[in-house]
Amino acid sequence: MTSTDSPKYTLLYHPGIPGRAEFIRLAFEATGTPYTDLANSASDGYATVRNTCIDPAALSSLGDNPPVFAPPALQVSSEGKGGGDLLISQTSNILNYLGPRLGLVGEDEADKLWVGQVVATALDLNNEVHDTHHPIAVADYYENQKDEALKKTTDFRKNRLPKFLGYFERMLKWNEKQQERQANRGMYLVGSKLTTADLVVWQVLDGLFFAFPSEMKARTEDFGLLLGDFYKSVKTEKGITGYLESERRMKYSMGIFRHYPELDRQS
């Protein structure tokens, strides 16, 4: 939930798109943790984001914090060196920081490591999805690389996507056996409660359903536990249901997940 009462956490990212910051928003929303989404909540918020995170000449950021390569970044009040604010970046790094503090990691050290490996794998998939529509040059328009995008996406849908989906499906089956939770079939990837692994995988799946609806529908039979039970169950988690129905949940547009019909399965 966002807040105007100076919460401890401030999220710095581009305005108007879910992007890589959405994984972090989901962690806050799932746990009811107040945060400020700076670029989407203040008229001059994005100017602050640019000055803090997108200045190629900066030798430091927000006081004595090191430079940020690119958003998202997370500002944590009074947790930095000398009592100042802490500024950290990179999605996986931010989730590693927040997980234990928000109760979104496993119950022991092994679970924490397994959660981390699932998160890292899902973020790899997230990056590959982006490359389907920008396979040659990130800064160029999709329209200038459409032929290459079609070749890239065809290989992605045929080879890469089922490999990732198969891994997450196997994780669910493994955890189902570990937990002996037949009544809650396929609810969690690691352990017996929601973790950042569930949130990150769910967000990537949701984006894939938007970007490649025909492909994902065709894959549902092969990966029913993942694309059926798991995908539906995360949406019912406390905090997530309300968030998805709120205006805070931004629509997919020109970010990572884009729907180009010509890149989707055609039959």
From TrEMBL:
Residues 8-106 form the GST N-terminal domain. GO terms for biological process: glutathione metabolic process. InterPro entries: Glutathione-S-Trfase_C-like, Glutathione-S-Trfase_C_sf, Glutathione_S-Trfase_N, GST_C, GST_superfamily, Thioredoxin-like_sf. This is GST C-terminal domain-containing protein. It holds the Pfam family GST_C_3. GO terms for molecular function: glutathione transferase activity. Residues 108-253 form the GST C-terminal domain.
